[in-house]
Amino acid sequence: MYPPALFVTLISLAGAALGFELIHDYSGDHFFQGWDYYGKWDNLTLGNVTYLTQEAAVEQKLTYINTAGNAIIKVDNFTTVANGERRNSIRLTSQEFYDFGTVWVVDATHLPYGCSVWPAFWSTAPNWPDGGEIDIIEGINNQASNQWAIHTTQGCYHTQAPADQAGFNIDTDCSTASGCTVGTDAPNTYMSGFAAAGGGVYATQFDTTGIFMWFWTRDQVPEDLTSNATTLDVSTWGDPIASFPSDQECNVTQFFTPQQLIFDITLCGVWAGVPSIYNAQCPNAGPNNDCYLDDVVGDGSNYDEAYFEVSYVRTYATGTALAAAQSASATSTTSASATATHSDPSTTAKTQTSDASLPSVSLHGLLIFSMCVGGLIAGSVLPLL
Ligand SMILES: *[C@@H]1O[C@H](CO)[C@@H](O)[C@H](O)[C@H]1NC(C)=O
Ligand SMILES: *[C@@H]1O[C@H](CO)[C@@H](O)[C@H](O)[C@H]1NC(C)=O
Ligand SMILES: *[C@@H]1O[C@H](CO)[C@@H](O)[C@H](O)[C@H]1NC(C)=O
Ligand SMILES: *[C@@H]1O[C@H](CO)[C@@H](O)[C@H](O)[C@H]1NC(C)=O
Ligand SMILES: *[C@@H]1O[C@H](CO)[C@@H](O)[C@H](O)[C@H]1NC(C)=O
Predict the structure, then answer these.
(1) Which atom of ligand 4 sits closest to the CA of residue 360?
(2) In sequence order, what are the beta bridge partners of 49?
(3) How many Å is the Cα radius of gyration of the chain?
(4) Which GO terms describe its molecular function (predicted)?
């Protein structure tokens, strides 16, 4: 709760330059508060999983806090699945919507991987593809490195890698099935390489000036994050690995609306399970050369590495998004999630400016039913749909 005087001060400064203040801390015993469990089969990417309800997930221990105090989000690796059945997994959606002027940080020590496994930490607007999608952590099968992407309705492109982008462009039309994808060769971004390095931190700035994503392996996490600061200065973070500035090629405020954050782990489905992709990445995984039959069916021993271990997700805001979050936390008892941080605007002024007040316009272009999938499959998925 804010004292009314401070609240008024913040509102009056909403248009001025402010640092990013912590607005929500998903961590520790409270990590799973503020997320909805999907509670039905994967009807989005058509994987061979049932996403459990919260009650079932807790009972079957597919989500829990481990002894290190980290959140575990995992695939069932202890049930024998018969041919024709699905395996249990998890999809979590944040109840909170994050507007322009916010930064989302996830610190993890392990990401799910292995043949048939397709995890993602991503965001979307409710009426996808209207309002856009941002893929922050995503990989399939034995893919060595992470891939970042944005997805939009027709009219948004990323044909040239911006000068400040550390990763390389893969696909450049954001309305295709693959979206606008950015890759890296760094093996510490995903799979066993990520865990071996002690994990790392992924951060996303969602702003009217563009969408910018960073990755740091454990020993390179910037000081404001390792020191647990409640105020961030993203201008000290160096070049993003994926940079989507709002420009002539893609007016971000036109294609994106407030986003919800999602964790999910599916199996097979319209990217990991596409036969040509699956067989290229997982040759000899089983006798059938088939993702579902060779991995999902049978005992759960393929899935011992199919889990997220997350120490926190923290979200930060500036400008009008910060004022809105503080107003919500000051007026609503249901947003116990919105952590009111101690804030003194006079000492937290930073260089970022963000005008989150621009209206967003949805396009209703005719779109194929594209998925939050990687660049390999633009051609191969469509016949399956
Ligand atoms: C998936 O199911 C949900 C809930 O029934 C529904 O709202 C949504 O439109 C479905 N999505 C797709 C892609 O079919
Ligand atoms: C498994 O996925 C494949 C490919 O999407 C689909 O054809 C099959 O019906 C699925 N089976 C189950 C039991 O989910
Ligand atoms: C880090 O900051 C969060 C939010 O302010 C707090 O809940 C947590 O206890 C802090 N952790 C440490 C190790 O200081
Ligand atoms: C971007 O789109 C917004 C509406 O979403 C519009 O107000 C603004 O003028 C556009 N900017 C440019 C440079 O076209
Ligand atoms: C499932 O995987 C975890 C590691 O993620 C492992 O500790 C556990 O023993 C596995 N369960 C079974 C039944 O093999």
Answers:
(1) 5
(2) 87
(3) 20
(4) hydrolase activity, hydrolyzing O-glycosyl compounds
What is the CATH code for 4-384?
A: 2.60.120.200
- Ligand nearest the Cα of residue 195 is 5
pTM: 0.85
Residue 334: which residues within 8 A CB-CB, separation 6 or more?
Answer: none
For residue 351, the tally of other CB atoms under 10 A from its CB is: 10
Å from CA of 253 to ligand 4 middle: 7
Distance from residue 238's CA to the centre of ligand 3 (Å): 24
- In this predicted structure, what is the pLDDT of residue 2? 36
- Residue 287 CB neighbour total at 10 angstroms: 8
Tell me the C-alpha distance between 206 and 213, whole Å: 9
Cα–Cα distance measured from residue 246 to residue 158, given in angstroms and rounded to the nearest whole number: 10
Is the per-residue pLDDT at 87 higher than 50? yes
What mean pLDDT comes out for the span 257-283? 97
Assigned token pair, 188: 């510490």
Beta bridge partner(s), residue 119: 265
